[in-house]
Design brief:
- Helix content is 37%, strand content 17%.
- With 448 residues, it is α+β, with helices and mostly antiparallel strands.
- The strands form four sheets. Strands 1-2-3-5-4 form a five-stranded antiparallel sheet, covered by helices on one side. The protein has a five-stranded antiparallel sheet with strand order 8-7-6-10-13.
- Strand 4 and strand 5 form a beta hairpin.
- Helix 11 crosses helix 14 and helix 11 packs antiparallel against helix 15.
- One of its GO terms (cellular component) is nucleus.
Length: 448
């Protein structure tokens, strides 16, 4: 019903949201007033209402966004491989057992518990989600919603899975980058063999930036490759260092051939700066944890246009004679329906010492159009679009997300031993500098 008819939610999801008791009451009223037995509530509704199982209001059902999702599930949910996974364990092992992420039918991701260390990850999630400590409450904003641990059977193998929020749920063209943060990616209890293996991975990149890029996927926006899905894995990530890191991040943000989308950068940087402040308070040790950057390319396309030239920022006017009734935006002539298009007229020759100044003025002004009014309107539209895209008031905006994952080697300090994780903070600081530099490149479009 969502994809075929364009409904915001399907009938069962709506029933979960409004409550089965409400549905039962509506059906009974319609049957009594019309006398048509087609409206008589079916037996299963009567049974569920009598048992007090009403949907979201009683903490049951599969309503999307339900905080207690996973607490009560009457029937097995459909499982499939999560095709948007960009890093971490994946693929089949001997015997057909699948070690990658699974996607559940209710908007959750299932992460298999494959190692003893991942039991610590469960403890980390449990502690973070239940704590009232101010620093941990702040950190909780940057962690996917956690719905507990449950056994599932896939391909004939039953094992425990960590149930997490699907951060890409609702995105039409999800772009995801996994950044493993920190030069040191092993915990204090690692064996000598483990330390040696970790120090041999992504060495040049980790030493230079304090993070590495194990994987990413991005949908191209604009140009001949518009809509193309591009993926990079650990083999590419192992070869990245120096300016290549910046190039890959620019490519991920669809800024390879020009300036980045300012609205997207503003949202990502706002979250990153807040995360830096949280980490600077101490309280956690995050070794081998990943930072996910996510956004929806379809939202970026609506913001920046199919041509790849961001429409959400004031464009530079091209130095050319303007057509009356048309606006010149970065080389594209966009007719204005409100003004009739007529043949261009040449300005009268100017024979005065002010000729050079007038010629320069002609490059950005027209005697037939009020460019000041048009620029003012463009800036107002840009601010409105930026406020909408960077709005943090809702549950989640697909324009830009930043989340922490993978806490098998994460530790929570007690109050008496709180100290800043300088290793993790160093990686965040370097990532922020890269994004800040990209943001600075967009300033000319706003202030020129």
């Amino acid at each position: 019903m969502k994809l075929g008819a364009g409904y915001p939610m399907g009938p069962l999801e709506l029933a979960d949201l409004t409550g089965l008791d409400t549905k039962k009451y509506i059906l009974e009223v319609m049957m009594n007033r019309t006398g048509n037995t087609v409206f008589r509530p079916v037996e299963v509704i009567d049974t569920l209402v009598s048992q007090g199982k009403l949907g979201r209001k009683t903490g049951e059902g599969v309503h999307y966004g339900l905080e207690r999702r996973g607490s009560v599930m009457a029937s097995p949910l459909p499982l499939r491989r999560f095709t948007r996974q960009v890093a971490g364990h994946g693929g089949d092992v001997a015997g057909g057992k699948y070690t990658g992420l699974l996607q559940c039918g209710d908007g959750t991701i299932l992460k298999p518990i494959l190692k003893e260390s991942q039991k610590r990850e469960v403890e980390f999630y449990e502690r973070i989600m239940s704590s009232n400590r101010p620093d941990l409450v702040q950190l909780r904003k940057f962690i996917p919603k956690y719905y507990g641990v449950r056994k599932f059977t896939y391909n004939g193998f039953e094992q425990d899975y960590i149930m997490l929020e699907d951060l890409t749920d609702g995105m039409l063209e999800p772009c995801v980058m996994d950044l493993k943060i920190g030069r040191i990616t092993y915990d204090p209890y690692a064996s000598a063999d483990k330390i040696k293996r970790e120090e041999s991975k992504y060495t040049r990149c980790k030493q230079q930036y304090g993070f590495c890029i194990p994987g990413y996927q991005v949908y191209r926006v604009g140009g001949a490759r518009d809509g193309e899905l591009v993926r990079g894995g650990k083999e590419q990530g192992k070869r990245l260092y120096g300016e290549q890191i910046v190039t890959v991040i620019r490519s991920f943000l669809n800024a390879s051939s020009g300036s980045s989308c300012r609205a997207l950068l503003v949202q990502l940087l706002a979250a990153l700066w807040e995360l830096q402040r949280v980490i600077s308070r101490g309280g956690v040790l995050l070794r081998s944890s990943s930072l996910l950057l996510l956004y929806d390319a379809s939202v970026l396309r609506s913001c920046c246009g199919d041509g790849g030239v961001p429409a959400c920022r004031p464009p530079r006017l091209v130095r050319r004679r303007s057509l009356p009734g048309a606006s010149v935006l970065s080389g594209h002539v966009t007719p204005l329906p409100s003004l009739p298009l007529r043949a261009p007229s040449s300005p009268p020759p100017v024979r005065s010492p002010w000729g050079a100044a007038l010629a320069r003025l002609e490059g950005s002004h027209s005697f037939d159009n009020n460019y000041q009014e048009k620029l003012s309107r463009i800036k107002m539209e840009y601010r409105a679009r930026l406020d909408r895209i960077a709005n943090r008031g809702g549950d989640r905006s697909p324009a830009g997300l930043l989340r922490l994952v993978d806490f098998a080697h994460g530790f929570i300090h007690e109050d008496e031993e709180i100290k800043v994780d300088e290793n993790f903070k160093h990686g965040l600081d370097n990532l922020a500098r890269i994004l800040e530099a990209l943001l600075k490149d967009t300033d000319e479009f706003v202030f020129s």
